[in-house]
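Colleagues,

Please find the record for the two-part complex below.
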Amino acid sequence: MKTALLVCTRPLPDSWQPLLQHQAIVAAARAVLCDAVSEEPAWSGHRLLAPCNLDILPLLATVARDFAEFVEPEGSELPQAPILLYEDGSWSGSEGMDDLRPLLHPSRFQRLDLNLARAVQKCRPEICVVAGGFRRAEEQLAGLDVRFERRIYFECLMERHRAEEPTAGWIAADRLLQQAMEQAHGQREIPPAVWLNALRPAAESYEEWDLEPFMAFGPALERALWDER
Amino acid sequence: MRTILLQLHVAKPVLCDAWEDAPVARGVQICVYADSAGGPAERLARRTHAAIERELLGLGARRVTPPCLVRGSQIAPAYRCSGAAATAAARLLIYVADGTGGIDPQFAQYFPPSGAVVVPLVDVSIAHPPETALPAFIYTTLAEVTRNLDPRPVIPRILRAGGIVASSVRLFISYRHQDAGKVAGQLFHALAERGFEPFLDRFCSQPGDDFVDLIEEELADKACLISLETSAIGRSLYCRQEVATAVSRRMGLIAVDLPGSRQTFGVIRQRIDARALQFSPSGEVDPNDLKPVVDQIEALYPHEAARRPRWQDLNLHQALTAARRQFSPEGLGRYAAQGKHGGQHLLAMSAALPGARMFIEVDDWSARCGGCQGTVFGPLSAARSNRNREIQWLAQKSGIRAVDEGRLYRAVKRL
């Protein structure tokens, strides 16, 4: 069983970055927690170590709820929560925390009450997923006593204005997916997606969809996390 | 038969398509008609036709070749459409006024107000008041008025007139009761008058209810969430969870920044600035002041509602491409893929928890394909819950696999 560390940085406001980041977080949680073999939906047994951050806890709750273990009425052991939480300092500063405490239900989350360094020391995560700016994530990870088997980030979430350039050993999940698709296109004719093909070309500028850039975070993460190298 | 025939007529028949699997109770023939070509009426007619196409695509309908083009190479005018005779139980004429009040008499006879739904569309640049531009047979029909030849604000009402809707225009209004209860109610009524199906109240929760489950249920069949942001909305557990659930289910997201808003939910990019609204002591606003807010929601809605169908289709398409499976498109979020050993698999993607209707659709599809294996992907629950039991029962009885979206790529790779 593995533990995947999720590192989030504050995205650029007034842009699509916050929405893309949230989509990436949901996809990361599902890709880690979902069992890949069982015929029926099942928890993989892997756990996610995520920040106890008010902005993303509700997102994680939607996924954790789907993988929360059933409590046996006469069981002798407490069930394991699928997601472990480390403190990033943001919870204590939030207003009205008492009203928000149900977010931390023990069926979904196990709050470690440890900062990142101590949580990493305790849990020894094998995987690291960065959902946000690469440079700021590296600052968080600097000096941590941990060796990751896989380190994953997204180019679409990088802070372009900071001219970020990841160090060696990091996997750009979105670029990896894009390369796989380009290779597939090079080998045979791939039919276009129904969504892209079904509409007549937009005659007017306003007819273009005003949506965030599309990114298949789920498949990208699955490839980056679980494909053999 | 749930087919829509969508036709464009600008002085002559121009376009005709059939759309299958549309959310209609019965077949509908829709004709967007402009009597003359070359002027602003033609432009408005073409824009209206394109906007309806986008809506139908967003509703999951599949474009197929219409009967007239199956049999020959010429598009027939609406009143001679053989496809309509076979499939359409209802007729909708969208009359785009060109200022002359003219109409082909055969159209007037084919779409009588007594037997069809006629929606006149008049741009203020063409005629004002609108009835001065209408032909005699619909002179007393209430016209939809557009500005700048932009039909988007009236599209929801046109679709409702044609009986096409369901979850497509269902909006959920998320708000903190202490701050915005009254204005939420006003917005509810204003949106309903524009042809939307707004939802306002939450389910009453009982001690022991899980709020995540409740919110999942309340948002299950909604296309877009409207967040009424006030200074203290961040303190609301339900508002936070509603926005998060809307993100995870790929719903549309629109924020209305009311006075005091701190733009708490930065994840919502489409924002309507209503910070200048004046509240009465009872917490209400002047309805005239609310109108621009509703106008902007109408304008933003088609784009936001497209997020979910776009994700359903492109996510599955890219997973299949990256997994190097051979596949063919069958519909929005529906693909037939070749397995490793040559068998064919039918794959369907859902952003919300798949229900009986999806299993029935895939089962029918499988039957048409000679009994291929079907698989439905969605946000399933591994937890021992009623939701899980229901999905597993449907899967077992139908023989269709239900797979969590979290292993989409891995499942497709193993086909």
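Chain B touches chain A through 79 residues (CB under 8 Å).

Comments are welcome before we finalize the supplementary table.
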